[in-house]
Amino acid sequence: MQTLRGTKLAIFIGLLPALIIYLGIAIVPIGLSLYYSFMDWNGIGAMDFVGLKNFTRILSDDIFWLSVKNNVIIMVTGLVGQIPLGLLLALLLNRGLKGSGFFRTVGFMPVVISSVMVSLIWGMIYNTEYGMLNNLLGMFGLESWQQNWLGDSRLSMLSISVAYIWQNCGLYMVIFLAALQNIPDEVNEAAELDGATGFKRTFRITIPMIRSTMMVGVVYSISNSFRVFDLIQILTGGGPAHQTEVMTIHMYNSAFMNMRYGYGSAVSILILLFSLVVITLVNRLGREKDA
Amino acid sequence: MSKRNSTKKAVLIGLIAVLTLFTAACGNNKAASNSKTGGSGEEETITLNMMHPWTSPNVDNDVYKARIAEFEKQHPNIVIKQDGVPSAQYKTKLRTLAAANNLSDINVVWPGADLAPLVAGSLVEPINHMMENWTSILPETALSGFNVDGQQYAIPTKQNFVDIIYYNKEMFAQVGYDQFPETYDQFIDAVTKLKAAGITPISLGNKEQWPLQSSYISIIGDRFTGSDFLPAVLEGKAKFTDPEFVKALGVIDELSKLDAFNTDANNMDSVQGQDYFIQGKAAMHISSATVDGRVRINNEEGDKFGIALFPSVEGGKGDPKKSAGVLQYGIAIKSGLDEKKKQAAEEFLKFFVNEDLYKELIRNGVVVPAKVEIPEDASPYLKEMLALTGNGTSPVFDSLIPTQVVDVLQNGLQALMMDHTTPEKLAADVQEALDNMN
Fold this sequence. Notes:
The structure holds 2 protein chains of 2 kinds. Chain A is an all-alpha fold. Helices cover 75% and strands 1% of the residues of chain A.
């Protein structure tokens, strides 16, 4: 018993440096944000305590709810885009195609290159006058399909979603691929003996076998969608006229562009609450299904 | 026994890790304090941090950088550590650093509404005691934007006019205009004819949102309301919902309903907007006088472009000869520097902003706020610019109006272009934002 306690102490001491850093850059700032969110503060002058006024203002602000809606769009399109696409790619690569190593690298590439580059690339693709997409449509005589992809409020969020899915689905591909390769050969062989091949094997055997990994993917995809910032900031800056603003961009614009640090902090607290609520819900649903 | 040993080891390693962390931190502190107070030897070098927005390839930016290099050459014991931030992000970074009380030693600041919070937070140092360096060359008007309650906080390096209409003479001739239209009705007529001729009338890059506000509303507003309007609004004696200002917003509405702008105006940045115009893809571009460097002065085909101001409007209270001008790039020193750094920074300020700088800028075609002689060999384009902008200056919207309110206007102008709002509704939103501030 005594030795065990000693080990715990040792573990604690070993963790201490990391813990201090983590407290400093994660926990303390969240606490400070909470504190600022009750203040009216322009970042430089004196702070005024205003209670919950920032929150009531946010919740009655149409622009905030627009940004929530856009976050939901990113979340849903991310889920229905990234997870199936990542799974499909993983299944294809798992069949031992020729050059699967090459395709794995290509598929994972967008995850590795910086968001700034991804945004610039997609900005060029979507450009109205000389963009690749409109040029391509023009080449096939589909001029009537040419659009102002990022400027038209009916299309802009979907255009962004496509870029977002492209950027991230490689990550899910790799996660799922690793899970697929962990399925024991015996299982597959047994399935084959029982006559489960093709789609049947995929849906009845393979996917259930990697269910827990897929749940991780779902949770990660959701939490990731609340953090999306750089891609949109560079593609559109949240514009035109707030149409592509997500909560993080709303927070950034309020705090850093308009010097409403109290309001911005309150938005960040809400982002935290929203993602906690959604992820708890998803976890609960996942567990119920397991049971 | 062996368990015990491994426990001990773990504890030791943990301790070492913690110690390393602390010594590393201490080491940093020591190094920092060394450079501040260390030694009274003559060899001592002083490092000054300077943040500036001079990253784009504009002519004046090169002049500023050459000036910094010259200063370092003449003062081998002072090092200017530059932090160049692209101008679209510069103000944001300045505000963020100000909020963290972490400004650079020397900063480039904007006058009026942008300077006010820095002064209110006592983040910049008054420089009244060294004003004799500039009083002979800088007129009162050039300094007043950086003067708050009798204290001078910065010295401007250039005078910018934000509302210059660059136009393609050939395209205008093609639709029957040998001169730039003088009235708003003619202007709209020209836009309609250009559009009918298959030419994009105006190229606009409004992704960063300031162009429609700064280059358009500043002057269009002034034409309708006159120059006393914005100060009156700030004092509560006038409102953005007054019919004159609503009419000014209506101009943007009318132009966008006429499809006067390129379709992707709100997705292009300002430089791309200039490129469209310079490449001959549009007949007009409205931007600052600085852009003349790209459009005409350093462009072999520059003579096919002309410059003009926004035409007069019917029943407008403003003087149609006025141009919207603002003093730019005030150089300010951070407050609370230690004596040595402060001296070095003042030395830099004296050297950087002097007659030579203004002369060099003028030689490169940049308008300056100082009373210096225009060199004989100055570009004829500059002389034309000076003649165009020399008939009175009206205020630039965002130099007077607080950022939060400007933001509402800027987003509203984009919404107006997308037909998501009306001039009346937008005017009410802007007024509401101003009312909410107090």
